[in-house]
């Protein structure tokens, strides 16, 4: 009998990127996997590598076709002094 071959497939996930001090953080909200880098491109490249490593674990459940999350901005009124990210 011959060896069975593993076939690679390409999956699509969402990535949310934000800046924290000197670094950019990239998060895949569907899988709660994150990485960081000195630029947006580096953070996304590192996230891709982290996701590939995540799926190397044979015990991981592969997601079915899930809808991408809807990301928006919510304005919240707060009282007192704040260190606002956005005004």
What do you see in this structure?
This protein is of the alpha+beta class. It has a single domain (11-87), classed as Double Stranded RNA Binding Domain, CATH 3.30.160.250. The chain is 20% helix and 18% strand. The protein is built from one helix and three strands; from the N terminus they run E-E-E-H. It has one helix spanning 40-56; strands spanning 16-20, 23-28, 33-37. Strands 1-2-3 form a three-stranded antiparallel sheet, with helices on one face. A hairpin with a 4-residue loop joins strand 2 (23-28) and strand 3 (33-37). The termini are far apart. The mean pLDDT is 85.
What is this entry, summarized?
Helices cover 20% and strands 18% of the residues. It has 87 residues and is an alpha+beta fold. A hairpin with a 2-residue loop joins strand 1 and strand 2 (23-28).
């Amino acid at each position: 009998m011959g060896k069975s071959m593993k076939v690679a497939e390409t999956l699509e996930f969402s990535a949310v990127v934000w800046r924290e001090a000197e670094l950019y953080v990239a998060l895949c909200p569907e899988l709660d996997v994150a990485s960081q880098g000195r630029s947006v491109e580096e953070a996304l490249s590192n996230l891709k590598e982290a996701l590939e490593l995540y799926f190397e674990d044979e015990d991981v459940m592969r997601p079915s076709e899930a809808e991408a999350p809807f990301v928006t901005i919510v304005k919240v009124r707060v009282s007192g002094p704040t260190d606002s990210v956005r005004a």
